[in-house]
Amino acid sequence: MDLLCETHTLFSQMNWMLLYVVLVSLFLGIRQSAFAVMLASVAHLTIQNQSILEMTNFYSYAGSVLTIMEFVFLGLAVSYTMDTLREEKRNFALELELLRGDYQELRRIDEENVLIKNAYETRLLDSESGLPRLYQVVQKLMVLHPDRIFMEMMQVISEMVHTDTVAVYRVSNVEDSTYLRLINALQEMAGKSWNIKEHQGIQKAMQTGELYQGNVWKGEPAIVLPVMYQGKCTVLIRIDTLPYESQTLYHMNLLKTLSLMLTEAVGRALDYEELARRQHYIEGTDILNPETFVEYVQLAKEKSRKHMAEYCIMELACTGNMERAYHQIAPILRNTDYLGIDEEGTLYVLLNNTGTADAENLGKRLSANQIRAAVTDIFDGVEQIQRVEKKGWA
Hints:
alpha+beta
């Protein structure tokens, strides 16, 4: 273009070499711009019939040197500016793409949250596991008898999480003891006690009162729910297995809610039991009076009919007053057994989760302490207590 426009009046005044360098810098980048500066410089010197080797001083070739410096400055300046703008454009495009990805992800999460919200609303209104069911649970817990609370709660947990592997254990009163005594179970358990010595996670949950999800690969139950009273775990609810559909966040929150309700109900029942001790126990002992003992027996019969726990009643013969007899017998019994008397003042022991066949061991221990014991069916009547013949004094 420089050669063609050399004779043109207007176009010959334009610096085509500089325009070439600027255009390359605008559209092709800094590397191509440097190459264009070299080509333009060579072309300019060629047109001027000059060689770079002939340039021995600045003053003789100032015009050509300034022209080449103009090519270099404008070429590098324009190309650097354009590369910077292109890099910013790429960064903005990348940020825009990331924002679009985040938007799509947030939109997907929002859609999932809407589905979860709708599912929760449906479940809240569902009569099987929602507010109506929770109302029934509250009504069942509004009793002042811990054993009945546990019996009802086992049924509720079984229905809500669709499993029959629910059991209730009483925590030992002995400090540092890792043995728990079985109270009730919907299925027959391997033993009447459970040693949690190797289960550090369960022991920690008993200290904090938090729901514990066990590692089934290590032989732990699926869920453990501690029931706290005055800062200590008094009872442990054990769920051995859960079906896959019951291992959701909804069911875990439901179990946590039930655990809080159960803790409050048991605390209220134990507080009432302590306040009403004079009405239910013989003074100075933990021996139940006739009316209260009959209630415990009736509850044991109900659990037996529902196949939650068997029971056995033994009549005891010992010398001395009730307080002396209590201090003599209590150390031999478990913390799940109850002492009581009938209207005639005869002393009995209610063995929870122990059948007649298993009562022989207790009879031997009592006999070793000069206490005669015999299995009796004196409380077989539903409403009235009638004495029957004793069976084989131990």
